[in-house]
Specification:
481 residues; Alpha-Beta Plaits; Herpes Virus-1; 6-stranded antiparallel beta barrel; 5-stranded antiparallel beta sheet; 8 helices; zinc
């Protein structure tokens, strides 16, 4: 069985909480506080779903918590970061987690679960700004319980009663009309009104969410027995801690150091406070430089009050002049030593810079030389590879030349044999033609006893060719005639 209740702050703004709610196993508790610590501080506990849940938790409410918002991000910056979801927000409450001074958290209640889910999916894990490394961490809220309040001072009746209007626009703080933002000091405003505020302070009480940082030792980070050098501003711990202040004096010769707790200046050279110059000679107490005896009206005889006032004033002025001169001499000596110290630092920096430049030049030259050597080695390897290829090509060229010569010789011999064969065939054809022509001539001649028993002899090649040419000429002439 569950029941709901509302808890309010100093200004009467409310946020819905639940009691006797079933706690899921994957939850974690965060202790928080809100309010102005000088007036009234409210403390409570937030029960949030663990960030180990990969999906949206079952049984969630339209109430989320934005954890670890950096202090330098103002309320107006967060309203601008929320963007279009701002009109769906019913209430925002700024709280501070216990033990975390440089960050704060924001409880946001939406009017619908869908908008809460969309807000979680859109902004969870997203950077607050592209120039920063902080990311937005959002967890669904199970329960918010207020454990009590601590009153630091007597509050006015106006602060303990409900404020129905916005201090900026003087309109009513109606949750149904728009979002309400409750700052860390428990003053409530409209989100549209507070978004116009430029700094991180409250427009009503001027309480600032960014608290001043405590001074610590530059070396060991302790906050007790601190001394600050009046020459360079170095903050170090005293000799009863780690002694970093006196160690700074031995390294830099800055002999004057101010104690932050008592605001007294110590001289390491004389090993005494500097205000010894204006100590009273009678009782050794610290007195104002231009003060006079308080017993002048009573004519006491226990001090120098009955002396002539002009002589006392002259002595006092001479003492003041001596003190001023001594201070000037000390300041001059400190400035000279500071000048020498900084000149030595400049020389060291110059030497270190020259050494770094020479090392950088040597490194760059060596790198360039290595690159050139690598390129040269690569070129040599390529040249060797090309030489091998060229040698192989030359060998192949000589081999192919020999093959070409052999082929040409074979072709020449084949042509020669072909010509001889053609010549022989022509002679045979000529003889055959002569034989045929002779037979034709013999057949055409009348039978005669002279050639009856004759023998046909072969005609020489030249004479046969001449006869053939004459015969061809006679044939051509007959055709023309």
């Amino acid at each position: 069985m569950s029941s709901t209740s509302t808890s309010g702050g100093t200004n009467g703004t409310t946020i819905t909480t639940s009691e006797d709610v079933f706690q899921p196993p994957l939850t974690q508790a965060f202790h928080f506080s809100s309010g102005n610590p000088r007036i009234e501080e409210i403390q409570g506990v937030m029960h949030l779903y663990s960030n180990t849940v990969s999906t949206l938790p079952v049984g969630r409410k339209p109430l989320v918590c934005v954890l670890d918002v950096p202090n330098h991000m103002t309320y107006a910056d967060f309203c601008q970061f929320s963007g279009s979801f701002l009109q769906h927000i019913l209430e925002m409450r700024i709280v501070r987690n216990d033990g975390v001074e440089d960050r704060y958290s924001i409880l946001i209640r939406f009017g619908d679960q869908e908008f809460a889910d969309n807000f979680y999916q859109h902004f969870n894990g997203k950077r607050f700004s592209s120039l920063e490394v902080e990311i937005c961490c959002i967890l669904f809220t199970v329960d918010v319980q207020y454990t009590g309040s601590i009153e630091r001072a007597q509050t006015s009746p106006a602060s303990s009663t409900e404020q129905p209007t916005c201090p900026v626009c003087l309109e009513r703080l109606d949750q149904d009309m728009g979002g309400i933002l409750t700052t860390i000091c428990n003053h409530s405003f409209h989100c549209s009104c507070i978004s116009k505020w430029t700094d991180s302070s409250c427009p009503v009480c001027r309480y600032c969410q960014q608290q001043p940082e405590n001074s610590t030792c530059f070396v060991c980070k302790t906050s007790e027995n601190l001394w600050i050098c009046v020459i360079c501003g170095f903050v170090g711990c005293g000799r009863y801690k780690e002694g970093h202040a006196i160690r700074h004096w031995t390294e830099t010769q800055h002999c004057y150091s101010l104690e932050l707790e008592t605001q007294r200046v110590w001289n390491y050279v004389e090993d005494n406070y500097v205000h010894r110059l204006i100590q009273s000679k009678t009782d050794g107490k610290l007195v104002e430089l231009n003060s006079h005896c308080v017993h002048t009206s009573k004519n006491c005889g226990s001090c120098d009050c009955n002396a002539d006032f002009g002589i006392s004033e002259t002595l006092l002025n001479s003492k003041v002049e001596a003190i001023v001169k001594e201070y000037n001499d000390l300041l001059r000596s400190q400035l000279e030593s500071q000048k020498v110290y900084f000149e030595s630092l400049l020389l060291e920096v110059k030497d270190e810079t020259e050494n770094e430049i020479s090392k950088a030049v040597q490194k760059s030259v060596s790198l360039k030389l290595q690159k050139m050597q690598a390129q040269l080695q690569k070129c040599v390897e390529e040249k060797k590879f090309l030489d091998d290829i060229n040698e192989n090509l030359m060998k192949n060229q000589e081999m192919w030349k020999a093959k070409i010569l052999a082929i040409e010789e074979r072709e020449r011999k084949a042509l020669q044999m072909k010509d001889e064969k053609i010549k022989n065939m022509e002679e045979q054809i000529r003889d055959l033609m002569a034989h045929i022509e002779t037979e034709k001539i013999i057949e055409q001649l009348p039978a005669s006893s002279e050639i009856k028993d004759g023998t046909v002899l072969p005609i020489p090649m030249q004479s046969s060719s001449k006869n053939n040419s004459k015969r061809a000429t006679n044939t051509n002439n007959k055709r023309r005639g």
